[in-house]
Amino acid sequence: MSGILATPVILSHLLIAQVLQEGDLAVDATAGNGHDTLFLARKVGPRGKVYAFDIQEEAILKTRERLRQAGLEDRVVLLQKGHERLREYVPERIKAAMFNLGYLPGGDHKIVTRPSTTLAALEQVLEILEEGGLVSIVVYRGHEGGTEEGKELCSFVANLDHKKWDVVKIEHPNRSLESPFLIGIQKKVAGGS
Description:
Helix content is 34%, strand content 23%. With 193 residues, it is an alpha/beta fold. It has a single domain (8-187), classed as Rossmann fold (3-Layer(aba) Sandwich). It is globular and about 40 Å long.
């Protein structure tokens, strides 16, 4: 049996669960098969809302079905749009956002997230993130372009103002250089340490 450090996805859920509460707004920037969307929908409760983005119809359909089976469809706005268009659809402040980069598991491996759209989406998320809010980014490097996307994200977050943002990178040093890693970004509370 694997422990809580087994995967960056498990860690991302643990981190997000620390800040996301009933009634909050959240974003799943990469709906995929709907696992993160479902997790967020459960956390925000009946008074909250999740905005879930994916460019692939297959991902939106799988996510919708997962939500339907759980009876949580009404908590989620599913958008078959690129996450770089986030601000067009999410005008409100959010408490959390999740990115699970790479390709749709079980889908077309040629359709992958790209640094330009991911960074555009991340910049928009940071603009609307509430104080104390958290962003998790699971970066997969085992596909074409994945290593480059990871490097560009690391460069971007390394340049965030440490007076406004806490940033961590969690990876397994005893695994392949292509193994996934997690970036966490939290907006500091004004007047906090």
